[in-house]
Design a protein that fits this description.
There is one protein chain. By secondary structure, this protein is mainly α. Among the domains are: 73 residues, no CATH class; 96 residues, Helix Hairpins (Orthogonal Bundle), CATH 1.10.287. Helix content is 52%, strand content 0%. The protein is rod-shaped, with a radius of gyration of 52 Å.
């Protein structure tokens, strides 16, 4: 008998289902409990139906026991007449065969898509196969990039041409006289290096020549060469490169301040002077 064909007490089913749902029980669990209570109530009120149902369930159980014993009952039944023929009234010992529990096997797959029963809530599967076409592919953004040829090289060529034309016009219309020949017997006072070396010359006023001329420049050059290996941050945003920008600014200001002091604040004997009071002892 199918589960849907089992007789039940509809009033008990409705009342139990309503009580279970009021408790917050899941609908499927509530329906199972209500159906069980309704079946018990129906069998209690109809004992003849319950007896008939038990008798109907006993027959398949007996058949299953016989099948599970592998045909052991048949030889036992056949041995009884043989024993009776051998001697009337002789006791016959019948060995009871061991009853084994039948193994329940799952039904074979039908290939049909499982569908929920009518009135049951839909449930989502936790695992599903997604076709490759349904996966969203994220393409890498182009970013701030240009091709070397022709975009970058053309811009560099145009910039070089404009600079060369400007230098040619500047040297054609503006006179740039040279100073007099150097006199080995006359040393200018103050004797200053070109502006791009004035920072190192200024360091000689504070440190030993070994420190100012070798140690500090070597430390700066080695540090600049090691920057690409120490700072591997690929970002070009200033907000993401705070440490690198801070170190570069400090180094740049350190060299710039030394150059400005050596250019405008050093006079005869390379002594400290105020340019707005004692003049500027520096020529470009």
């Amino acid at each position: 008998m199918a589960k849907e064909d089992t007789p039940l007490d509809q009033a008990v089913f409705d009342s139990t289902l309503e009580a279970e749902l009021a408790k917050g029980t899941d609908r499927r669990v509530a329906e199972g409990r209500a159906r069980s209570a309704a079946v018990r109530a129906y069998r209690a009120s109809h004992p003849e139906e319950a007896a008939k149902h038990e008798a109907a369930g006993a027959k398949p159980a007996a058949a299953a026991a016989v099948a599970g014993n592998g045909g052991a009952a048949a030889p036992a039944a056949a041995a009884a007449p043989a024993g009776a023929a051998a001697g009337a009234g002789a006791p016959v010992a019948v060995a009871a065969a061991a009853v084994t529990t039948p193994v329940r096997e799952a039904p074979l797959p039908t290939g049909n898509v499982p569908t929920p029963k009518k009135g049951a809530d839909d449930k989502h599967r936790l695992l599903a196969l997604v076709p490759p076409e349904g996966i969203q592919r994220v393409e890498r953004e182009q970013g701030d990039r240009v091709n070397v040829w022709p975009h970058l090289l053309i811009e560099e060529f145009v910039a070089m041409f404009i600079l060369m034309a400007g230098l040619t016009l500047f040297s054609t219309f503006i006179n740039a006289p040279l100073r007099e020949l150097a006199n080995p017997n006359l040393t200018p006072n103050p004797s200053k290096a070109p502006w791009y070396f004035l920072g190192l010359q200024e360091l000689l006023r504070y440190f030993h020549p070994m420190v100012a001329g070798i140690t500090i420049p070597t430390f700066i050059l080695v540090g600049l060469a090691a920057v690409p290996y120490v700072d591997r941050n690929p970002s070009n945003k200033p907000g993401d490169r705070k440490i690198a920008i801070t170190v570069f600014t400090m180094l740049f200001m350190f060299g710039g301040i030394l150059t400005i002091i050596g250019s405008f604040f050093r006079g005869p004997g390379y002594n400290w002077v105020w340019p707005w009071a004692q003049g500027v002892f520096f020529e470009l």
